[in-house]
């Protein structure tokens, strides 16, 4: 509870969450659900005009105000022009912008989530228009928000490196949806049935998998090249790339075309949420070789499913996963290939111990714990802490 047991009236801007959410969209969905179950938060969701029904189902009991236009340019303009007036009418204590931006003229204190600093660290990973937009939004939030929420200590440190930070900073790790991401399938044979529908043809073969949007910072072309180096020694193995196309997927297409074993790289496109845990559980290993992340939730979800995780050292994934993962230097194709080969051979004597450590680590990462940290941030913003 907040100081004195008061209930905080909070709005969350959910207008940026697409119909098929990934990354920050999942964060907003899960956080809103966890907050909606709390007695110390009076939650209102502000959605796009055509999106209220989804949120009413997702967060039962939380009012949904359908107000924002759907096209992104109009939605961003609406946030600055109309949202401040809406917040005044709603009479809330705190407004939360969970995707970098905030209504600059709002009289209500704002909490803003900054997921990562990739727009500063490596702007080439993004479309130029997004770089301009989000660099400004992040710098503004760092100066003018009441509180900035970062998903990791790594991201909080980078915010201080790249921006003048006048806001209070609260680190709130992401959680794992424990009802979905577990090491055990729902019933014997159910994972195979799910995969037969979602990704036909892979359930009977050993496969390595990547789950995430295909975009430059995920290092998917390097993963394809690494798989190609060892695929000849494992003729039955597949590499499954499970995720929708982001910006810059031409490099992935080119890597698959160049690969001698490119015909054994399976591109699934977007995989429905219900199939992802099965995909992770049945894999030989999950490869998440991203060069940069703000948190790296897919890595944590892989550990929650008992999967062997290969990811990159010196990144936030090392902060999150530690010795529960096999770590390789970012961009080192040969080291990544050696890690893939070892997993396909089953030659790692520490595999079971790492699996146990991963499952133990995940128990501390719940969305309820993340919601606790967000409520702490809201209390600071409202002047109640």
Give the key terms.
single chain; 385 residues; alpha/beta; Rossmann fold; seven-stranded parallel beta sheet; six-stranded parallel beta sheet; 16 helices; 13 strands; 41% helix; 16% strand; globular
Distance between the termini: 11 Å
Strand content: 15-25%
CATH level-two architecture of the largest domain? 3-Layer(aba) Sandwich
What is the CATH C level class of the largest domain, in words? Alpha Beta
General shape: globular
The structural domain count equals 2
Largest sheet: 7 strands, parallel
Describe the protein in words:
The chain is an alpha/beta fold and 385 residues long. The protein has 2 domains: 3-175 and 366-381, 3-Layer(aba) Sandwich (Rossmann fold); 190-362, Rossmann fold. The protein contains 16 helices and 13 strands. It has helices at 24-36, 52-58, 72-81, 83-90, 118-121, 128-144, 153-162, 190-198, 220-231, 250-258, 276-281, 297-304, 316-321, 333-345, 351-362, 367-381; strands spanning 8-13, 41-48, 64-68, 94-97, 110-113, 147-150, 168-171, 207-211, 238-242, 265-269, 285-288, 309-312, 326-328. It has a 7-stranded parallel beta sheet with strand order 3-2-1-4-5-6-7, sandwiched between helices. Helix 1 links the parallel strand 1 (8-13) and strand 2. The longest helix has 17 residues, at 128-144. The model has no long low-confidence stretch (mean pLDDT 94).
């Amino acid at each position: 509870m907040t100081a004195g047991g008061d209930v905080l009236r909070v709005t969350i801007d959910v207008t940026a969450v697409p119909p098929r959410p990934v990354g920050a969209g999942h964060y907003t969905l899960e956080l809103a659900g966890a907050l909606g179950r709390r007695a110390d938060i009076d939650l209102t969701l502000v959605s796009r005009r055509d999106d209220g029904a989804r949120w009413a189902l997702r967060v039962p009991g939380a009012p949904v105000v359908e107000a924002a236009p759907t096209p992104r340019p109009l939605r961003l303009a609406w946030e600055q022009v109309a949202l401040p007036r809406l917040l005044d009418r709603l009479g809330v204590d705190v407004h939360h912008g969970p995707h970098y931006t905030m209504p600059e003229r709002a009289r209500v204190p704002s909490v803003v989530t900054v997921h990562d600093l990739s727009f500063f660290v490596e702007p080439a990973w993004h479309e130029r228009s997004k770089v301009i937009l989000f660099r400004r939004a992040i710098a503004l939030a760092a100066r003018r928000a009441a509180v900035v929420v970062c998903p990791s200590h790594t991201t909080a440190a980078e915010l201080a490196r790249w921006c003048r930070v006048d806001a209070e900073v609260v680190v709130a790790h992401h959680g794992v949806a424990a009802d979905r991401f577990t090491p055990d399938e729902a019933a014997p044979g159910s994972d195979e049935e799910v995969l037969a529908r979602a990704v036909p043809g892979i359930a009977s073969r050993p496969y390595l998998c990547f789950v995430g949007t295909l975009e430059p910072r995920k290092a998917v072309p390097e993963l394809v090249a690494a798989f190609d180096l060892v695929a000849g020694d494992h003729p039955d193995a597949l590499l499954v790339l499970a995720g929708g196309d982001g910006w810059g997927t031409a490099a992935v297409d080119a890597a698959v075309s160049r690969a001698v074993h490119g015909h054994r790289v399976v591109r699934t496109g977007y995989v429905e949420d219900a199939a992802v845990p099965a995909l992770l559980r049945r894999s030989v290993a999950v490869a998440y070789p991203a060069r940069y992340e703000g948190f790296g939730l897919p890595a944590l979800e892989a550990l929650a499913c008992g999967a062997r995780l290969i990811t990159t050292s010196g990144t936030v994934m090392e902060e999150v996963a530690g010795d529960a993962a096999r770590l390789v230097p970012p961009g080192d194709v040969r080291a990544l290939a050696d890690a893939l080969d070892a997993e396909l051979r089953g030659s790692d004597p520490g595999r079971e111990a790492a699996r146990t450590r991963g499952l133990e680590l995940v128990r501390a990462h719940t969305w309820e714990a993340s919601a606790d940290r967000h409520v702490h941030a809201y209390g600071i913003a409202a002047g109640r802490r």
